[in-house]
Amino acid sequence: MVATLHSLVAPPKMRRTSSEAPLRLAYLFRAFAVAIPVSVLGVVVLSPVDELARALGVPSPTEPGLLMRMALTGLALAPVLATSLSLEALRRCALAVHDGQGLTLELARHLRAAGTWMLVSSAGALFVPTLAGLVLSAASGKVTLMVHVGTGVVLPIILAGALRLLGGVVVSAAAMAEDHSRIV
User: Rounded distance, CA 180 to CA 4, Å?
Assistant: First the structure.
């Protein structure tokens, strides 16, 4: 076999992994990406408004209208849909690993997208209860502002920010590796 300059300097393509773990993870990510929004939608639509108000610690509105129900549904779904987009990006990463892709720019971009959507979801989880409480309390006639902050909200924001930062570093490294492979 004659070696060419390209075959000597080009990084070898990773072979497809024999482990089925990345593929199983990809299926799991897809299942959660679909199941979580559907379950949240079901809970918000089927729960009585006074129960939602009680869970948020705000006064229950006297006459909950369709507009209020739609506002609550939209507020509840916003961070959940961002979580689904993050899970979809992670699914694409798992499929790339399963297919034997090494550190490619595409895989790095999916990783950074996962971190970005997790950050959006975590930030939404910080603001949604406050906004939902404002909507419910305004309808009852007594506007109540309650901000829920705790480690259950702050820690995911920190971890998502770290994943996004790591994804950005990996994107830069993959782009640099791609540029170096073109030079040689």
Answer: 17
pLDDT tens digits, 142-184: 777 777 777 777 888 888 989 889 888 888 888 888 888 888 6
Could you tell me which residues come within 8 angstroms of residue 82 by beta carbon, excluding any fewer than 6 positions away?
117, 118, 120, 121, 124
- Residue-range domain boundaries for the chain: 19-183
Measured distance CA(52)–CA(56) in Å, rounded: 6
What are the start-end ranges of the H helices in 47-103?
49-56, 66-98
The residue count for the chain: 184
Q: What secondary structure letter does DSSP report for 1? A: -
Q: How far apart are CA 102 and CA 62, in angstroms?
A: 58
> How far lies 19's CA from each of 23, 90, 91, 110, 155, in Å?
8, 17, 16, 21, 32
State the Cα–Cα distance between residues 144 and 94, nearest whole angstrom: 44
Residue 166 tokens, joined: 């790591």
The token pair that represents 66 in the structure block: 């369709």
Instruction: State the distance between the two ends of the chain, measured CA to CA, in whole angstroms.
Output: 21
Residues 20-67 pLDDT 10s: 888 999 999 999 999 999 998 888 888 887 777 777 666 677 666 778
Q: Residue holding tokens 């939209």?
A: 74
In the DSSP assignment, the letter for residue 48 is -
